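Tokens for chain A. Residues wanted.
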């Protein structure tokens, strides 16, 4: 065979990999006989032998019938094929570094894995039985790893092979979620949950790779993957839950008010947030993708029938998650239950998506006004019945405090939304009351961390949060007399403190004040310490940006306080 000497030398490490793989399989003699595997003393020195090895490993990676004993085999096959791909992949970014033999091996490896995966998915879709999920999770995870590989050979190979299967994946996700929502009371099986996770992870990596390489001209601009995912997410996050809610309102007692389990909702919402970010950053995506994503976010936050003429009611998933968070907060005071799903990560993603949409649209439109009211309603719905003396800002900080990144993203976006509404002539004063008061939100944040200047400085210099952006935007309010009038020194004996916003929606109201005064002294001490810490760190070159403008803004705020 041409190039046999080079091939034999290149494939020498594969024999050891294959022997390690077989040593795992030997733990079950019946499992070996089932897949007709030969003894571990074979030598992978020919193309036919390597092809046979790949086919044998893929049969174990994607078994026909799932049994508990298959788990070890799937993991072993996954690791073997991943290592095999690493051996066959060149160090460069093109196949020129490969011999023709090794290139054909790599192509065959991608072909057989993709063919088997999508063949099994196609059979599952044709059968219509979405309760039984084909055992493809490990194989889909392998495709994701290849997409994330630094080598363009693997990534381009995977993208080229799955380009024609996006609609099939969309149908698979839709049918699976339809079964979960309408037949399983919103609760997925373990196999369904893992399959959904792996498919959505593959989709996210594929979208990221497609967007990146399309921008630099390495790949043709094809919005199909983005379009199919946006339509699939709209169906699963809006259409199906809305249908369930409508049937519940009509008195069908056989249906649960839970439209979707929070763990699956979190998977879908993470995908929606990633898609939202990519469509905002990628210029070549068609307007159809952007409009579908915006419609999904709006319906998720506001519901399908929201109007300023009527009371704004959040979408079914947002409403359920807010009530679930309220119930969980109440139960957590009585006992700690680690098995109860935490809906707050889902709610944070809903708030984040809604705020990003709100600051991007024209503030004078009804859409933005409905979004502002619905976002307020979602946060308000997380209040427990026992928490009578709680402000909107306190509820907001309780909800956001579980994730530092989301905390500052949401606080910053809410400040930006307030700025846009404040500068809009048509904005009604009642709408501004639906926005958290900037001074009280900052005070609640400071109270949450015990007025720790060191923690605030850690957040400011950290690249993992938007604390710096948030703090800069907040401190600007001290330079606008209209935005800091309530805390500016006056001729009164005692300075006037900002008041937590008084809110009423329906029959539910929040108190106008829970403490006697805005914590002026505590905040002043904290900000003074922050300025001092930044100055000290900067003198030693330990600040990754120039902190002098921020220090000047802090000192100006201190003069106002």
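Reply:
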């Amino acid at each position: 065979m041409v190039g046999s000497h080079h091939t034999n030398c290149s494939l020498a490490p594969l024999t050891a990999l294959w022997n390690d793989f077989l040593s795992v399989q030997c733990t079950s003699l019946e499992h070996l006989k089932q897949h007709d595997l030969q003894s571990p003393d074979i030598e992978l020195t020919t193309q036919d032998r390597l092809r046979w090895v790949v086919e044998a490993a893929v049969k174990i990676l994607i078994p026909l019938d799932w049994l508990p004993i298959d788990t070890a085999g799937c993991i072993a096959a996954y690791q073997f094929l991943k290592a095999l791909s690493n051996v066959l992949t060149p160090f460069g970014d093109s196949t020129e570094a490969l011999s023709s033999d090794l290139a054909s091996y790599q192509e065959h490896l991608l072909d057989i894995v993709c063919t088997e995966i999508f063949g099994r998915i196609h059979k599952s879709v044709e059968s219509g039985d979405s309760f039984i999920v084909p055992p493809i999770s490990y194989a889909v995870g392998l495709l994701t790893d290849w997409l994330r590989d630094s080598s363009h050979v693997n990534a381009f190979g995977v993208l080229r092979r799955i380009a024609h299967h996006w609609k099939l994946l969309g149908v698979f996700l839709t049918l699976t979620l339809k079964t979960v929502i309408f037949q399983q009371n919103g609760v997925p099986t373990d196999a369904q949950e893992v399959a959904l996770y792996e498919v959505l992870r593959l989709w996210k990596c594929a979208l990221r790779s497609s967007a990146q390489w399309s921008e630099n001209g390495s790949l043709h601009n094809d919005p199909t993957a983005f379009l199919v995912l946006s339509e699939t997410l709209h169906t699963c996050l809006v259409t199906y839950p809305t249908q369930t809610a409508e049937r519940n309102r009509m008195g069908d007692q056989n249906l649960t008010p839970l439209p979707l389990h929070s763990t699956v909702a979190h998977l879908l919402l993470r995908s929606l947030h990633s898609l939202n970010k990519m469509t905002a950053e990628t210029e070549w995506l068609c307007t159809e993708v952007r409009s579908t994503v915006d419609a999904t976010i709006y319906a998720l936050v506001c519901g399908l029938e929201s109007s300023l003429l009527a009371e704004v009611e959040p979408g079914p998933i947002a409403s359920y998650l807010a009530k679930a968070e309220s119930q969980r907060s109440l139960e957590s005071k009585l006992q700690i239950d680690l098995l109860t799903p935490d809906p707050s990560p889902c709610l944070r993603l809903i708030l984040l998506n809604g705020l990003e949409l709100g600051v991007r649209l024209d503030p004078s439109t009804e859409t933005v006004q409905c979004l502002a009211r619905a976002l307020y309603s979602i946060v308000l719905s997380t209040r427990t019945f026992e928490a009578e003396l709680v402000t909107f800002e306190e509820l907001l900080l309780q909800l956001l405090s579980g994730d530092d990144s989301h905390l500052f993203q949401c606080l910053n976006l809410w400040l930006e939304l307030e700025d846009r509404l404040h500068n809009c002539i048509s904005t009604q004063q009642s709408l501004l009351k639906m926005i958290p008061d900037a001074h009280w939100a900052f005070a609640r944040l400071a109270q949450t961390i015990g007025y720790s200047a060191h923690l605030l400085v850690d957040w400011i210099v950290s690249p993992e949060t938007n604390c710096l952006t948030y703090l800069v935007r907040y401190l600007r309010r001290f330079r606008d007399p209209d935005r800091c009038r309530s805390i500016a020194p006056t001729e009164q004996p005692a300075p006037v403190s900002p008041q937590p916003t008084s809110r009423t929606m329906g029959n539910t109201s929040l108190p106008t004040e829970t403490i006697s005064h805005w914590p002026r002294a505590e905040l002043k001490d904290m900000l003074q310490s922050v300025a001092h810490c930044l100055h000290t760190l900067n003198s030693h070159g330990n600040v990754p940006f120039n902190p002098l403008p921020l220090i000047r803004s802090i000192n100006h705020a201190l003069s106002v306080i």
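The mean pLDDT is 79. The first helix runs from residue 4 to 25.
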